[in-house]
């Protein structure tokens, strides 16, 4: 019975994330609210995920949340567009641009999990401070959590491209949960070194 309740919570939280993120502008707020609901569900045992999701949506200032999470998401989208653009060119400048664009895109993608986790934990942190901390964590854990983030993102993308209805069966919330777990692992690796 508990497994059925968990599956229901998982699917309902995924559906709520998709509905709120439907107008793409609200994607950062949806990710933030889902991240907070995941924290309370997984960490504190709170079973009413929709209530937690809605409470998180109402309690977080929309502009601040959009800035904290939306800017890194937009940077990843711009990085993908740059890489696609430079792939078409055959000149030396295009190859240099492709290399720099790929490096920036990889660091941005690897930092997203830290952004999702830390923005939920520290909503009042200055945005630039949070982003730079996430970028430093991504670089420090480049060879440990970096490949995990890339596998998670690539896996979710491939599965969604192969079968788009899987979006409704939990791919977005599963990806968010996996990225947050990987980010927590990366934080635990770094914390003893900072003490």
Q: Sum up the overall morphology in one term.
A: globular
Global mean pLDDT = 89
- Element pattern in H and E: HHHHHHHH
Strand percentage: under 5%
Oligomer: single chain
CA distance, first residue to last residue: 43 Å
The number of distinct β-strands equals 0
The largest sheet, given as strand count, sense and whether it forms a barrel, is:
none
Unreliable spans: none
Rounded radius of gyration (Å) = 17 Å
- The helical percent reads over 70%
So how many helices? Answer: 8
Q: Tell me the structural class.
A: mainly alpha
Please describe what this structure looks like.
This protein has 195 residues and is an all-alpha fold. The chain has one domain. The chain contains eight helices and no strands. The mean pLDDT is 89.
Descriptive key words:
195 residues, mainly alpha, 8 helices
In short:
This protein has 195 residues and is mainly α.
Architecture blueprint of SSEs:
Layout: H1 2-21, H2 27-44, H3 49-59, H4 62-87, H5 92-121, H6 127-140, H7 145-162, H8 171-194
């Amino acid at each position: 019975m508990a497994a059925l309740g968990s599956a229901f919570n998982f699917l309902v939280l995924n559906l709520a994330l998709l509905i709120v993120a439907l107008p793409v502008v609200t994607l950062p707020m949806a990710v933030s609210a889902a991240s907070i609901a995941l924290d309370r569900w997984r960490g504190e045992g709170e079973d009413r995920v929709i209530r937690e999701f809605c409470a998180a949506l109402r309690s977080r200032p929309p502009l601040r949340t959009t800035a904290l999470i939306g800017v890194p998401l937009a940077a990843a989208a711009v990085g993908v567009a740059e890489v696609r653009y430079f792939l078409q060119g055959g000149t030396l400048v295009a190859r240099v641009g492709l290399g720099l664009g790929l490096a920036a895109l990889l660091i941005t993608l690897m930092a997203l999990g830290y952004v999702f986790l830390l923005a939920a934990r520290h909503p009042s942190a200055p945005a630039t401070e949070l982003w730079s901390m996430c970028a430093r964590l991504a670089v420090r854990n480049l060879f440990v959590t970096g490949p995990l983030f890339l596998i998670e993102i690539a896996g979710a993308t491939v599965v969604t491209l192969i079968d788009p209805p899987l979006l409704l069966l939990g791919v977005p919330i599963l990806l968010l949960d996996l990225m947050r777990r990987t980010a927590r692992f990366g934080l635990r690796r770094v914390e003893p070194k900072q003490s």
